[in-house]
UniProtKB/TrEMBL annotation:
Organism, as annotated: Ureibacillus xyleni
Source organism, top-level taxon: Bacteria
Keyword Transferase attached: yes
Key word Secreted present: no
Name of the featured protein: Mannose-1-phosphate guanylyltransferase
Length: 461
């Protein structure tokens, strides 16, 4: 069995910690067995490793999340990047055809799709292995993992089985995200939530594509990805499929998609520079800012502050944030494979000049790419640490207190010999990500293209 781990989604319901490039699966708000912080993707990857499925797992994600995946997991992880960010149907098609064409799997090989964000225990994955072992005995087109509902919700699809008492159930109806009234009806009929986890044989997707007269090879889909319907797999496939079976999972399963649910997994009521009064009840504060937050008298509330904004909400109503909060403009904080940055200030001087100030951290041994810009100059002030600075094919050691000036068109990169913190001030007419023209990313290649490397730098590399 091969695994497609879907790592898309924007996590709008967890604003302001999540933004356009820092989605909920990368937020380190959970605790592992040792009490150390971990993200949703780190937790699920450890579980896949524990049951021996990680080696057969392909992560399907978008370009926006690639650096965070490598940073939080490993550079050896296999990640398939979508040509453009789309919904689950095209992502699953892309992953399936990749397995067939690039990994040469048999067309009757089972493929299991798992979303990255549910909170489950290891028994969940053991049941998936069990489902794979009994798949051939029932020969469904799709085999779903169902969850017993705890309340009528519009957030999930509903699986209505023909016979509720059977361990493996033939599905009579599947409906994606019904109204509350319909959800109540489905629950009364023994309906289950769709966990988003299911399996099928690779040939099922290939046959589906051919029937729809769509490209069915990986190379063709990469070229014509926009032809695939930009909808969920549930809408495109499951609602129109008759040969579906399901198996109920009765262990721990939670969708950590809202602050109200996520807070239940916090081991403290306060994170960061914050405090709550004795009169507060069931209230959590999560502060990423350097300024203090003091909360007095709130009950069943969540207070979250990040460089992207501040949220104060009743926990039961917190999911409404997805309606009012938008990821407009540049992200104010972002994790990269080399470290992280926070935007400290942005000023538009006039119609032709902007100034952007960032605080950048580069982890020891990591580096920024060798790059240049057309429309901006930069000034870097080293706050702490020591590094190697490559500038127009020359290299030298830099350390705390040094000020580095970079003009438009200058080739430049930096490697941290020990953890570096830098204040970067950008000034120019167009301060956008697209004005970063990357030449090399690998430090050995960067060094080989620097003709003049001072002697002290040579001894340190």
């Amino acid at each position: 069995m091969k695994i497609i781990l879907l790592c898309g989604g924007s996590g709008k319901r967890l604003w302001p910690l999540s933004n356009g490039v820092r989605s909920k699966q990368f937020l380190k708000v959970l605790k592992d067995k040792r009490g150390e912080s971990e993200s949703m993707i780190q937790r699920i990857w450890k579980q896949l490793q524990e049951v021996g499925l990680a080696k057969d797992t392909l992560i399907v994600s978008s370009e926006h999340y690639l650096e965070q995946i490598y940073h939080q997991l490993d550079y050896d992880i296999e990640v398939l990047v979508e040509p453009e960010k789309r919904d689950t149907f095209p992502a699953i098609v892309l992953g399936t055809t990749y397995f067939v064409e690039n990994k040469k799997i048999a067309k009757d090989e089972l493929i299991c799709v798992i979303p990255v964000d549910p909170y489950v225990e290891i028994e969940f994955f053991k049941q998936l292995i069990e489902m794979a072992s009994i798949y051939k005995n029932i020969e469904p087109n799709v085999f779903l993992m169902g969850i017993k509902p705890t309340f009528p919700s519009q957030q999930y699809g509903y699986i209505i089985p023909e016979e509720y008492s059977a361990a493996v159930k033939k599905v009579k109806t599947f409906r994606e995200k019904p109204t509350i009234e319909l959800a109540k009806t489905y629950i009364s009929q023994g309906g289950l939530w769709n966990s988003g986890t299911f399996m099928f044989q690779a040939k099922y997707i290939l046959d589906f594509l051919e029937k729809q007269q769509l490209p069915s090879s990986y190379s063709a889909i990469m070229r014509k990805y926009n032809l695939l319907q930009n909808s969920s797999f549930d809408y495109v496939v499951l609602e129109n499929e008759n040969n579906i079976y399901c198996m109920e999972f009765d262990g721990t399963w939670e969708d950590l998609g809202t602050w109200g649910v996520l807070c239940e997994h916090f081991d403290s009521n306060v994170y960061g520079n914050a405090s709550t009064s004795l009169s507060c009840e069931n209230t959590h504060v999560f502060n990423e800012l350097d300024i203090p937050i003091h909360v007095i008298g709130l009950k069943s509330s969540i207070v979250v502050a990040s460089p992207d904004g501040i949220l104060i909400s009743d926990k039961k109503q917190s999911e409404q944030v997805k309606i009012i909060a938008h990821h407009n403009g540049r992200p104010m904080v972002e994790e990269r494979r080399w470290g992280w940055y926070k935007v400290l200030d942005y000023t538009k001087i006039n119609s032709e000049q902007e100034v952007l100030t960032k605080r950048i951290c580069i982890y020891s041994g990591r580096n920024l790419s060798y790059q240049y810009h057309h429309h901006r100059s930069e000034v870097w002030t080293i706050l702490k640490g020591k590094g190697l600075f490559a500038h127009n094919e020359k290299m030298r050691i830099v350390q705390a207190g040094d000020v580095l000036k970079i003009s438009p068109g200058d080739y430049h990169a930096i490697k941290a010999l020990e953890e570096l913190e830098i204040i970067e001030v950008q000034q120019g007419s167009l301060l956008i990500e697209e004005d970063i023209i990357r030449i090399f990313s690998d430090w050995e290649t960067i060094e080989s293209n620097c003709h003049h490397i001072n002697e002290a730098a040579t001894h340190l590399t």
